[in-house]
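Narrative of activities, Objective 1.

The group set out to show that a structural description can be obtained from nothing but a protein's sequence at a throughput compatible with the screening campaign. Below is one input-output pair from the validation batch, recorded exactly as produced.
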Amino acid sequence: MISSHQSTPIRRRFVRCVREPATKRSGRAAVSALYELNWDESGEYVKDPAKFRGFFAGDGNRTYIPNQFFDHVVPTESLAVVKVVGAVIRFSIAFSNKCQRPTDSISSCRQ
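Output recorded for this entry:
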């Protein structure tokens, strides 16, 4: 069962579930859930939390962390939600060398 601190980022469209978890059953191993950042590719930078559809996917971020994380998530969400979304950011944006934009990577998160 997913905890409320983990489900809130999904409901608020900060992250999305790529693969649902499955418990261990006879003859089948357990499967960890996979989460990734929810990107909004509409081209519009949304600041209104009620209209938030995901993190802005276009150019314009000064860091590899989406600006909306700092504009919306950090000041308005609980510390637990900020930590969950921050962890997904940390493990879903791969590192890159100097002068190259990082690539997305999918990581698992054990529940």
